Amino acid sequence: METKSVVKVGSRKSQLALIQTNTIINQLKKLNPNLSFEVISMQTTGDKVLDAALSKIGEKNLFTRELELALEKKEVDFVVHSLKDLPTALPEGLLIGCIYKRDSPYDAVVMHPSNAGKKLEDLPEGSVIGTSSLRRAAQLARKFPHFKFENIRGNLNTRFRKLDEDNKYSAIILAEAGLHRMGWPDRISQVLDKDTCMYAVSQGAMAVECRNSDPFTLSLLSQIHHPETVIQCVAERAFLKKLEGGCSVPVSAFSEVKDGKLSLTGGVFSIDGKQGRIEYACDSLPESIEEKEKPTVSPNGPREFAGIVGSEKVSIATLEVAQRVGLQVAELLLNTEAKEILANAKAETAAAVIAEKQKKDAEKMKNEAEKPQANGIS
């Protein structure tokens, strides 16, 4: 097996992304003090396109494409992601080599300074809540139909600036994990429980993607593969993959490993939140979740579950249970009105993508038409 003295790591350029990347590197350094790590940061499509809601851009790998291309070209050995940004279908030859211990998966409310100390329940009718997530807006609209939900894009620093300076938003909704990683827990006014807003699939988990043909990196990453997080995320991603969901549809999840059992609750909602369906499944995990024998690797690479590999810490049998639970919840939903809700949400989002493209094309044509006139005037 090839060995390396310097490991090249791909990351997005945002402050949060670099914090997450360095968290992974620091853990690996503790376990492998002789290794050196070099961070190669880059902007992704999602970082560049900030004038439209994620759901209106019409692409699934907005925050991963450029990083995955660097992996495929062997410019980096692995890349660090927020797992919720990774599509359930990965490019051929790539997989999730490890998932680090999950932080809080819940959503948090950050209030405008004028509303400091308040909760959503305290805000008046017509308050504008900023979120880039259809999932959050749909669920919160069910509980707070008197609020207006508007898109807010940009990295966390940008969203905070928009909240504090624009006076447009009464509050914004962000992932609690990201706020803690950035060192801003004092801005959290409220954490939303699962009855108010179930979280996104794999929210709060950091994943490391690598090539399936790179045994050195796979072995390295297996050291920080967190068993309970892996079990939960396999179930959640299998659920989402079966539904063929993503950021373009309001799909939510809540999973738990407790008393030797894995449970998963999954929800599907209409864009406006007026319709929704929630289903639940539970199954017993093997008595020992660890792999008793060293996992065998085929010529095509290790076996994957929703893009995630097992390890000696998490047996194939355990991951099979997790995948089965995820598929069961998805199938329960697809046998109800949720199937139609999902189809309508996808159609509505697809129409919004087309409308957004037409709008941008019209603006581009207008700008080009005005150029000669402007030159004539000057």
TrEMBL record:
Domain Porphobilinogen deaminase C-terminal per the UniProt entry, residue ranges: 231-282
Chain intervals for the UniProt region annotation (Disordered): 356-378
EC number: 2.5.1.61
GO molecular-function terms, A-Z: hydroxymethylbilane synthase activity
SUPFAM superfamilies, alphabetized: Periplasmic binding protein-like II (SSF53850), Porphobilinogen deaminase (hydroxymethylbilane synthase), C-terminal domain (SSF54782)
Porphobilinogen deaminase N-terminal domain segment(s): 7-215
Assigned GO CC terms: cytoplasm
Needed co-factor(s): dipyrromethane
Keyword Transit peptide found: no
Compositionally biased tracts (Basic and acidic residues): 356-371
GO biological process: protoporphyrinogen IX biosynthetic process
Record keywords, A-Z: Porphyrin biosynthesis, Transferase
Keyword Transferase: yes
EC class (word): transferase
Pathway as given in its UniProt record: Porphyrin-containing compound metabolism; protoporphyrin-IX biosynthesis; coproporphyrinogen-III from 5-aminolevulinate: step 2/4
NCBIfam families: hemC
Protein family membership: Belongs to the HMBS family.
Protein name: hydroxymethylbilane synthase
Organism: Magallana gigas
